[in-house]
Amino acid sequence: MKLKKHSNIKTVLLIIAGILVLCFFIYYLFDRSFNGIFTDWFSRKFIWQTQDPNTGQLNSGLILTGFKYFIIKTVFFLALTVSLAIWLVSKFYARRKVQASIQLLSQQVEEYLSSDTASLELISKEFSSIRLPISQLRTKTLEQERLLEQENQQKNDLITYLAHDLKTPLASVIGYLCLLDEAPTLPEDLRKKYISITLEKSYRLEQLIQEFFEITRYNLHSIVVNPGRIHLETMLLQMADEFFPVLEPMKKSISVDVPSGLILYGDADKLARVFNNIFKNAAAYSYQDSDIAVCARSGQDGVTLTFTNQGDPIPEHQKETIFEKFYRLDSSRSTQTGGSGLGLAIAKEIVTAHHGTISVESNMDATTFTVFLPQTDYHTKS
């Protein structure tokens, strides 16, 4: 600190000395060039001369009043000039110092962000006050890069899974249509069977395309929630009835335990999609001759719904990934269990849009999906 102060004083003294030397040089050059014009002016202005009438001797002296004001003006001018020069020089050096600091900081930050070690020692001590923000910036940058890489991978998966899931039903449709085209003399009952299978596979294609379209739409645009009053018991009982034709051949059933007066605030259409997807998942992976139990209870913060079915337990490491797009418990992605692997991903998107949560617990006895929906964020208009 002392060395820096001494250096500043030395710089100021050098500036003053330089200005004085410059002024003297200008005076000397000006006076010489114009044949002593400055000396003559100074003599006329500040020197008095008288001649003694008796002796004829020439006497001279300095006019103190005029010279005093001249000195004051000169000192003021020099002080103003020196101050201006010091200000200009200090601004110049300050700008250079700031530019050098910015360049150094930029270089060190670039090295730090690209370094694998992530050592804050790469940032000089003079920038210690911003080490933490830079570290946080690096963390955010790496996280954004990871998310971008993950997003690109998901886009690649979208193409792969789309091709895979559309291939099987499309091949069936083409195969049966070729049979119908190449064998016009097929028996009527066989022809009807092939047409029925073709129609079933076509509906399957339509369903897959609709699910792909829906998850893409949810990814590209924020989900708009249109909240309203939902009579939860009525909704779930109606959905259980709709699943009866699907579950009855496998001797499966749905039991609903919901208080009759329970009102849920949310988007009825979108939440129906959530419950439908959970029902479909439970129907696909539950044991034959088993029950899917649905329970809903209202708490202080919101409504909690549980969907419990008996089936093979979900491995611990797969409990989070089942909510990812295109994930199936049957890794071969066979069509026996139906679905595209998008149902639970869509359900999570919708629940998240309601500021709720969805999770799963699974053991040897049962698998339970839990949906929590807060009731403080949505209110119906009167």
Automatic annotation (TrEMBL):
Q: Write out the entry's keywords from A to Z.
A: Kinase, Membrane, Phosphoprotein, Transferase, Transmembrane, Transmembrane helix, Two-component regulatory system
Domain named Histidine kinase: residues? 161-377
Quote the PROSITE patterns the UniProt record gives: HIS_KIN
GO function terms (MF aspect): kinase activity
A Pfam family: HATPase_c
SMART domains reported in the protein's UniProt record: HATPase_c, HisKA
Q: What is its main location?
A: membrane
The record lists the membrane-crossing segments as 12-30, 69-89
Protein name according to UniProt: histidine kinase
Organism per entry: Brotonthovivens ammoniilytica
